[in-house]
Amino acid sequence: MAQGIDYFNREHWLSNIQEEVSFGARKRMFDTWLDYGQGLDNNSLLDVGATPDVERADSNCFLKWFHEKGMQVACYSPENINHLNDLFPFIDVLQGDFNDQQLPVSDIRYDWCASSAVLEHVGSLESQIQFVSEHARVAKSLFLTTPNRYHWLEFHTKIPFIHWLPRNFHRLLLKIFGLNFWASEKNLRLVGKEELSSIAQVALGDEWDFEIRTVSTLGMQSNLLLLASRRNHNNS
């Protein structure tokens, strides 16, 4: 496996169970997206934030599903993902540096821009708005997923409920527990449905129609899906 950030907290004793739960949730998210998208065959798609991990069943599972629907799939990640071509020979891996928060892609280059569980890792509210805005710059339609802050379990730390506290108290507790990586806003900033809607309104403006859908896991809404399309995008 390529070396990178361990977003999965794979040493935790719940990690294997989470992998199975996460795979099922992602399949439900994909099916929800299919219900939204129409005529996907031969559509081009850029997946932003692909993980270098090749061990977990839920890692990059969307890539295979996109391909099975007849889509032309490209991937971008700030981490080294060149080895993914061995597992997914159908993808086009883009190189570039996301430090300036700009994708190495021209305007409206793709039919779709997608990211799975990346928004919560890009930093501040302003960075999250820029992240969505940059997706919108390069595509006609968007499919972004992120964990719901108000699910009872926080899936990165595997700690329940404390992420419902105000963010400064949550981060203080994570530091007390020795989880300094997750206590940093640049590594984890969870959002709820209302905040995701606000982010989309600012990032997309009047040229887009969007909706927020949800997927439930373990008794509560666990994942949020931002689905958006440019108005009159067929003429873009």
Describe this structure in words.
The protein is of the alpha/beta class and 236 residues long. It has a single domain (15-158, 189-235), classed as 3-Layer(aba) Sandwich (Rossmann fold). Helix content is 31%, strand content 22%. It is built from seven helices and nine strands, in the order H-E-H-E-H-E-E-H-E-E-E-H-H-H-E-E. Strands 3-2-1-4-5-9-8 form a seven-stranded mixed beta sheet, sandwiched between helices. Strands 6-7 form a two-stranded antiparallel sheet. Helix 4 packs across helix 7 (193-204). It is globular and about 50 Å long. The N and C termini lie far apart (40 Å). The model has no long low-confidence stretch (mean pLDDT 89).
| Structural class by sheet pairing and helices | alpha/beta
How many structural domains does the protein architecture include? 1
Taken from the alpha-carbon principal axes, the silhouette is globular
What's the level 1 CATH class? Alpha Beta
Full CATH superfamily name:
Vaccinia Virus protein VP39
Strand content: 15-25%
Sheet bearing the most strands, described?
7 strands, mixed
Helix share, percent: 25-40%
Q: Could you name the key traits of this structure?
A:
7-stranded mixed β-sheet; Rossmann fold; 236 residues; alpha/beta; single chain
Give the arrangement of secondary structure elements.
Elements: H1 15-36, E1 44-48, H2 61-68, E2 72-76, H3 84-87, E3 92-93, E4 110-116, H4 125-138, E5 139-147, E6 153-154, E7 159-160, H5 167-176, H6 180-183, H7 193-204, E8 208-217, E9 220-230
